[in-house]
Amino acid sequence: MRRKDREVTEIREIIEIIEKCDVCRVALFAEQYPYIVPLNFGFIYDGAMLTLYFHGAKSGTKLELIKQNPHAGFAMDCAHRLIAREKACNYSMAYESVVGYGDIEFVLDIEEKHRALRQLMAHYVPEQEFDFDTQDLAAVTVFKLIVRQVTGKRVTVS
To answer: Structurally, how many domains does the chain consist of?
Structure first.
């Protein structure tokens, strides 16, 4: 990262940023151009590994691309605030972001699928616990991005 003064390296702070984000954009390999899709997500950090969980339909472009190449990049950002200045070229934006890459795997184990969907819902509605029946679990595809590299960035008003 060019601006080391904005880099967030502590995993605790990176997790704090992730907790604030609503959408994770996942970049997949397509034939000629990257394919980027915004997704709702949940996550688990177990002290050693960060795993992002996603869900979706049983078929579609993103699933086909994942089957062809499971390597993916991701980005999420939050806390946006315009920093106004006298001159247009001096305007800026305060924000926090997390970017990284890793490998995607489909979640086939029913218990892990259940846990993944609970984590996804907990990210958005932490005060309520959800349950999923067999029909719910069968209706969706769940996949996880096992994070191999992650970095954070924080731009503050100055």
So the answer is: 1
Query: 78 lies in which domain range?
Result: 4-155
For residue 4, give both structure tokens: 């080391």
Gap between the Cα atoms of 99 and 65, Å rounded: 20
When comparing pLDDT for 158 and 132, which is higher? 132
Please name the helix (run of DSSP H) or strand (run of DSSP E) that holds residue 77, with its range, or none: strand 71-83
Between CA 153 and CA 156 the distance in angstroms is 10
Tell me: pLDDT of 8 over 90: no
CATH number at residue 48: 2.30.110.10
19-61: per-residue pLDDT in tens? 999 999 999 999 899 999 999 999 999 999 999 999 999 999 9
